[in-house]
Amino acid sequence: MTTEHESKWRYDLDPKIIKEATGDIPWGRNLQIVESVDSTSAELLRLAAEGAEEGTVLIAERQSAGRGRERKIWHTPSLVHLAMSVLLRPEIRPLDLPGVVLPISLGVCTALESLTGFTFGIKWPNDIVYQDKKLCGILCESRLLGGHVQALVVGVGINVNNDTFPGEIERKAISLHEVAHKTFRRDLVAGRVLRTCWESYQDYYN
Predict the structure, then answer these.
(1) Which one of 10-24, 64-78, 163-177, 179-193 scores highest in mean pLDDT?
(2) In whole angstroms, what is the distance from residue 107 CA to residue 99 CA?
(3) What is this structure's pTM?
(4) Are 19 and 59 in contact (CB under 8 A)?
């Protein structure tokens, strides 16, 4: 039996809408949307070890152990936040891994600006901000084997429809809803972000 909560999040995270937005790109061709996971990036690294293909995307309605840079807790409130990770298998040296965040950050900014009409900034190395408030966090995690990059997972967390934040985060964070004064479908945001990040990543490495 489907609960009211499950009906709401499944409506707002429709895989058909995401795939319509991504089109024919490889990112999201294998798309998994789950209700709960410890961390989308941690789970995707586990799937990578089992042979998951490059471009696999995992989206979770809730994370019990979402994390940001320096192991900081990343809050993912239900129904309003987008927690998404994509698996890459780049042929780059381990010392070049930190550079991956740049094209991803540019791609996220492009997507959010096209959705809202507002301009966002990049706070190096992994934050997307609006008027000095954090809107999105990006975290790259890798698995090495024999000195080679076996898998790279890029996690993206976006405050989409939040109207409140817990504790001291309230003065440091902002959402798309608060910026544009409208409600956004998270599947449309996810699809647009995947598309523009893939394009930015291709331009950067080709």
Answers:
(1) 179-193
(2) 14
(3) 0.92
(4) no
User: What are φ and ψ of residue 204, in 5° steps?
Assistant: -70, -40
Cβ–Cβ under 8 Å, residues 172 and 149: no
Between helix 101-116 and helix 186-205 the angle, nearest 10°, is: 140
CB 194 within 8 A of CB 186: no
15 φ, ψ (degrees, to nearest 5): -60, -30
List all residues 6 or more positions away from 181 whose beta carbon is below 8 Å from its beta carbon. none
Strand partners, 151: 143
d(CA 172, CA 125): 17
What is the DSSP secondary structure assignment for residue 52, as one 8-state letter?
P
Task: Please choose, from the candidates 50, 38, 27, 42, the residue with its C-alpha nearest in 3D space to the C-alpha of residue 150.
Answer: 50
In three-state secondary structure terms, 46 is: helix
**pLDDT confidence of 78, banded at 50, 70, 90?**
confident
Torsion of CA 74, 135, 43, 99, to 10 degrees: -110
The mean pLDDT of the chain is 91
Contact 22, 195 (CB under 8 A): yes
* φ and ψ at residue 84, rounded to 5 degrees: -145, 140
